[in-house]
Specification:
Length: about 550
């Protein structure tokens, strides 16, 4: 009996499975959504059928099937073994996954749920986390088509103690993509024309699928003309023909072009747009230094700000022309190597200073508004959007320039006379005081040497002020008499009439040069010529007496 008992106990110790181990069992029955499994030694347990189902599939289990289960407890309150098929799969899966992780091998799994930041993946019994960034090479908006689909994954990180596994689907795709890219790129050559499908459009160009590898079609290589946005040329999903411009073997980047398959319009620029010819173009872009004008698709020229207007200086080009405006321009210079055309806008219009000089010769009366007042004169707006200047010295006859200019304000309408037009220097000189031609009328017929009668209007220490027909002049002390003793201003009184000789007529300064002394000398000379000479022995008194007697 003792030997039998020892053998029996030994048998129990050897054959009875330990709790926490994986054992094999046989399906005895399936009822109420559970499988009844015999794990030996008259121990039976129940397992929910869902533990035998793959994600998205129906459970596959039948009576008589042998299955592995995890023995959690030998006997519960009902005398049944507590077992789990899922935990058995998990333990087996962890063993398998740890080996795959160590060997850097891929593992197969299926996405079955969505969690914060990503998805859950069933790796044949072990649940892994798939971050959202590791689902695809590009952001995935709808992961529905990927759910429940068996596919390979790469294990990025795993911790059995904590039960954490992180996997990536993107790493698999990138690896496959790299192999595919290498194969496609190997079949491409620079200069080759190929068909591609537009996959994406950005601000700077479009990405074109060349059959597994993407190439960049930059916006500047889409057309010879200026393209504001790639969507003007291509649309997503469109099949286009492109030329391979450059292939970077290291980075696998491919540069594509469309315009390279078209005729270069610059080949015929010199023939179509000869120098000094005028053409109508469209303004495509405006900058601080000028405006770009499209002469034909693919050919643009620059109108520099200095060539935009004859009259508008130091203004932004946007105040002269606007985008999409059609303008007439002249070709000034062509540089085919640098692909540059210099254009002129003002050259298509006549120089306004030339026009003004033709239509307003010197002496013409003009009218305009005071545009600006400076320390040296007034600027007056004239026809043709040009300005003329009235210098301080040309404002008034009677006032000093600094005083006369105080009588004017910006916006005042003034009249003036054109005194000079300098086309090369773009200057027009005007005179306001020239409008008063009373001096010319008063002195008409008066010339140098004439004897006229003037009226004394003021007595000063240096001489006397006189007036002739409204024109005032000043006779200096030294010109009051040929005799020094008589060169005294005080011997005259205001209102006296005096005969004087005209020594100068200055129309510009409206001044008459007058002299009593010169008149007396002239009279003496004339008397000597008529009644004698110094050689005849006659005295001056005799000559003058004879002259006076002759007058009587």
């Amino acid at each position: 009996m003792e030997e039998f008992e020892a053998l029996l106990n030994e048998s129990f110790e050897i054959d009875t499975p330990d709790e926490g181990s994986v054992v094999k069992g046989k399906v005895l029955a399936i009822e109420a959504g559970q499988a009844i499994i015999d794990v030996g030694y008259k121990m039976e347990g129940r397992v929910d059928l869902k533990e035998f189902a793959q994600p998205g599939e129906a459970p596959e289990i039948h009576v008589g099937d042998e299955v592995e289960v995890y023995l959690r407890q030998v006997e519960n309150a009902r005398g049944e073994a507590v077992i789990s098929h899922e935990m058995a799969r998990r333990e087996a899966a962890w063993d398998r996954l740890e080996k795959a992780y160590a060997d850097e091998n891929r593992v197969e799994g299926a996405i079955f749920g969505r969690v914060k930041g990503g998805f859950t993946v069933d790796l044949g019994g072990a649940v892994a986390f798939l971050p959202g960034s590791q689902v695809d090479v590009r952001p995935v908006r709808d992961a529905g088509p990927l759910m429940g689909l068996k596919q390979p994954f790469q294990i990025l990180k795993m911790d059995r103690r904590r039960g954490n596994i992180v996997v990536s689907r993107r790493a698999i795709l990138e690896e496959s993509r790299a192999e595919q890219r290498a194969e496609v790129i190997g079949n491409l050559a620079e200069g080759q024309a190929v068909d591609g499908v537009v996959k994406n459009i950005t601000e700077y160009g479009a990405f074109v699928d060349l059959g597994g590898v993407d190439g960049l079609l930059h916006v500047t290589d889409m057309a010879w003309r200026r393209v504001n946005h790639p969507s003007e040329i291509v649309t997503i999903g469109e099949t286009i023909k492109v030329q391979v411009i450059k292939i970077n073997k290291e980075t696998h980047r491919i540069s594509l072009g469309m315009k390279q398959l078209q005729d270069d319009p610059w080949d015929t620029v010199e023939a179509k747009f000869p120098l000094d010819s005028t053409h109508t173009g469209r303004v495509t872009n405006i900058t601080d230094y000028g405006a770009f004008v499209e002469l034909e698709p693919g050919v643009e020229g620059l109108v520099h700000v200095s060539e935009m207007s004859w009259t508008k200086k130091n203004v932004h080009p946007g105040k002269i022309v606007s985008t999409s405006q059609e303008v007439e321009v002249m070709v000034l210079e062509i540089d085919t190597q640098k692909r540059r055309v210099s254009l002129g806008l003002k050259q298509t219009m006549r120089n306004p200073w030339e026009v003004f000089a033709e239509t307003h010769p010197e002496g013409t009366h003009v009218e305009g508004d005071v545009k600006n007042i400076t320390e040296f004169g007034l600027f007056v707006g004239l026809d043709g959007d040009i300005d003329g200047m009235v210098h301080l010295s040309d404002i008034s006859w009677d006032q000093r320039g600094e005083e006369a200019i105080q009588n004017y304000q910006k916006g005042d309408t003034v009249q003036a006379v054109v005194t000079e037009v300098d086309v090369e220097k773009e200057r027009i000189s005007l005179s306001i005081k020239a409008l008063d031609d009373s001096f010319s009328g008063a002195t008409e017929g008066v010339k140098r040497g004439s004897i006229i009668t003037v009226e004394v209007t003021a007595i000063e220490d240096g001489g006397i002020e006189v007036e002739y027909e409204g024109a005032k002049s000043f006779i200096r002390r030294s010109d009051l008499s040929r005799d020094r003793s008589e060169q005294r201003p005080e011997r005259f009184q205001v209102g006296d009439k005096v005969d004087v000789r005209v020594t100068n007529v200055d129309q510009k300064t409206r001044r008459l040069g007058l002299s009593i002394k010169a008149r007396e000398i002239a009279e003496e000379k004339e008397a000597v010529e008529q009644y004698g000479s110094s050689d005849s022995g006659a005295s001056l008194g005799d000559i003058l007496g004879a002259a006076l007697k002759g007058d009587e």
